[in-house]
Design brief:
Length: 425
């Protein structure tokens, strides 16, 4: 038991080290322009890290600064002054505040003078937090469409493709109406592959996806108001700006690979061997967990002390809409069930924004005695997984990881600590 607690402490320390590596405080200052524009600087942003990014930008930029950013409730931070307004809005489904924020930003961008500079701060969650439906679609309808695609298990990139083509602001449309061509976009990436146009659905970045792509996604997954949506997606007026057609520049300042690299460095200093699976893991969360259990066993057979690191974005196909949990908990459930109490293996899986799914946890941890402790409490992990009730399982065992909002977001962060019997204390 003492050994388990030691490794749990190690995994939590590595998580926090990784989070620090991708914080706006650490990553944004060196990328900001040092020469102010002739006019003013307008700072806009959307995402779970938007408030933290805005605070850093406002502190480091010279000259007149004003702006507006929208973030998820609870992800607000104190600002040094009131030059930048912080709004909160709905996530993962947009709400009326998402629409209000988008309307205000559209007006502010159109009012920019040619010698002004627009700085846009993009991070994960921005697609929901900034929502302005195309003509012919109501907000309530877009909410229903988004909710359907989320529950269907559609990958986030495909959800965002549809959202871009049903939006007046996403997919580069905000930049397309800007009064200034001096547009700088700074990005904390939460998407596999770090495609700049995908983060927050790229309001200031040209879109490589097309109306044809969006129609194919709806054809596969369906959606409410399908005929109306397909008609809108057949209207060329709803096509997004093509790559190469917009002014400005963009920079990714933090990504999942940075968090994994920091964790690996810290672990190696403590004598652990590290194998990284990379930051591009996708798939059904529980199946990924099962696959990683097999990899962990192979590393254990090699002897020594190993950390198996991975990032990316897994998905959950929701069978029970009243369930509670998230991808990282379902990943751990698949991992624990496959390991079946294997000695010497402890794991952590968290979402770096501090929220895995819809509850208050970033993720959770498992130890070799997870299933045994659950059996003593008469709770069955297989049943919890089948009904999407993994949150209740890990809460009962007191194995949730609760960080609160981290004010960054580079998606999933997973570590499996593996020790052969000869290294156990």
């Amino acid at each position: 038991m003492q050994h388990n607690e030691h490794n749990k402490t190690l995994l939590l320390d590595l998580l926090h080290g990784g989070l620090d590596a991708v914080s706006a405080t650490q990553t944004l200052p060196s990328h900001l322009p040092t020469i102010p524009p002739k006019g003013r600087t307008l700072i806009l942003g959307a995402g779970k890290a938007a408030a933290a990014m805005a605070r850093v930008a406002a502190t480091h930029l010279d000259g007149p600064v004003s702006g507006l950013v929208v973030t998820r409730s609870g992800h607000v931070c104190d600002m040094s002054d009131d030059a930048i307004t912080i709004m909160t809005a709905g996530h993962p489904v947009p709400d009326i505040r998402s629409e209000q924020a988008a309307q205000q930003m559209l007006v502010m961008v159109q009012d920019c003078a040619a010698d002004d500079r627009l700085i846009f701060l993009a991070s994960g969650g921005g697609s929901s937090l900034l929502c302005l439906p195309v003509a012919g679609l109501e907000l309530a309808q877009k909410q229903a469409i988004t909710r359907h695609l989320v529950y269907s298990g559609s990958p986030i990139a495909q959800i965002n493709c549809v959202r871009k083509h049903l939006s007046r602001i996403k997919g580069g449309r905000l930049a397309a109406v800007s009064g200034t061509k001096d547009i700088r976009t700074f990005i904390i990436s939460d998407v596999v592959g770090d495609e700049p146009s995908a983060i927050a659905s790229g309001p200031t970045i040209a879109d490589p996806t097309s109306l044809d792509d969006a129609r194919a996604i709806i054809a596969r997954y369906g959606c409410p108001f399908k005929k109306q949506v397909m008609d809108l997606l057949g209207n060329e007026a709803n096509e997004t700006p093509r790559p190469g057609t917009l002014s400005g520049q963009h920079t990714i300042i933090a990504r999942a690979a940075d968090a994994l690299e920091r964790a690996a460095t810290l672990a190696q200093k403590q004598g652990w061997q590290v194998q990284s699976l990379g930051d591009n893991i996708e798939g059904e969360a529980r199946e990924v967990g099962r696959n990683h259990a097999h990899l962990a066993r192979k590393l254990k057979a090699r002897g020594g002390r190993w950390l198996l690191l991975s990032g990316g974005e897994t998905t959950v196909t929701v069978a029970n809409k009243d369930g509670c949990g998230g991808p990282n908990l379902e990943y751990l459930a698949g991992l624990a069930l496959t390991l079946n109490g294997e000695a010497g293996i402890t794991a952590l899986a968290c979402d770096t924004d501090g929220i895995d799914g819809s509850e208050d946890n970033a993720g959770a941890m498992i130890t070799p005695d997870t299933l045994r402790r659950a059996a003593k409490l008469d709770i069955n992990l297989q049943d919890c997984l089948r009904t999407n009730q993994t949150y209740n399982f890990f809460k009962t065992l007191d194995d949730l990881v609760i960080t609160g909002p981290t004010l960054t977001n580079v998606n999933d962060f997973r570590i499996i600590a593996i020790e052969s019997l000869s290294h156990k204390v």
